[in-house]
Amino acid sequence: MRRRFAVLGMAGVVTAALVAFAPAAAAAAPAPTTGTVSSGRTKLTVRSGPTAASAAVGALRNGAKVALVCSVKGPKAKGRVRTTDRWDRLTGGAYVSDAYVRRRAAPPACPPPPPPAPAPKPAPVIVPPSGAVPVGTWVAPLTGRGTSGFRTISRPDHDGVDLAAPRDTPIRAAADGTVVTVVCNTSGPSCDVDGSSDTRGCGWYVEIRHAGSLTTRYCHLIRRPEVVVGQQVTAGRTIGFVGTSGHSTGPHLHFEVHYGPLPATRLNAIDPAEFMSRAGAPVV
């Protein structure tokens, strides 16, 4: 008799513990529904999405046990079990057609997907006042063929213009100013070797600060530039030579113009083609 009371007492403790934890259990996600694949002699394709057109990511043999997290509506399919437009999401995130799954209960509907993240706002286009662009004091950095413009539809993050030219073509300072940056910027082994589409960075590049809060940047030089930080340069002085270092697939100059306080960033980049045209030194 004492043993029986002891067992009953333990059962009461367990029951009390379950009651104590009831709120946490209620907040937990429902357990997956168990199902059995019924696909006959062929395997049931597991897909990346809830459609027959989604990529196949695996296959389940007939009779395999599956854990169904939830189901979503998709294209209708006629299977060995039923004809239905429901697709079951498995625990790994892939899907199978519910038309080939035997189950005692239907899995719950999947929650709606989260709304897409808002598209990043484009960087503002800054136009310097006309007094900051004195005509006659600017020169084109080189004579080249324009191959990519400023923030095009296909390249919205392209903050300059690309001017194709042969290797070792001299690059000129676009106006009088002070050299503020001379840097090798690459994810490759060196800026003294050709870059590629997989390489990141501007390669060898120079930045020059000009009057009127203007800065110009010259990228992908073939070797260390011909100027140093702090050096005063005049418009038309050779500062380096065309190359293809950094993120580059062929010899060209990537040329940027920035208006505002240093440093030069994409937030203060302006369209070089429009600016240089206003300055009387068109680049394209």
UniProtKB/TrEMBL annotation:
Source superkingdom: Bacteria
CDD domains listed in its UniProt record: M23_peptidase
Leader sequence residues: 1-27
Claim: rRNA-binding is one of the keywords in the record: no
Domain M23ase beta-sheet core, chain residue ranges per copy: 158-259
Swiss-Prot/TrEMBL keywords: Signal
Protein name listed in UniProt: Peptidoglycan DD-metalloendopeptidase family protein
Lineage of the species this protein comes from: Bacteria, Bacillati, Actinomycetota, Actinomycetes, Micromonosporales
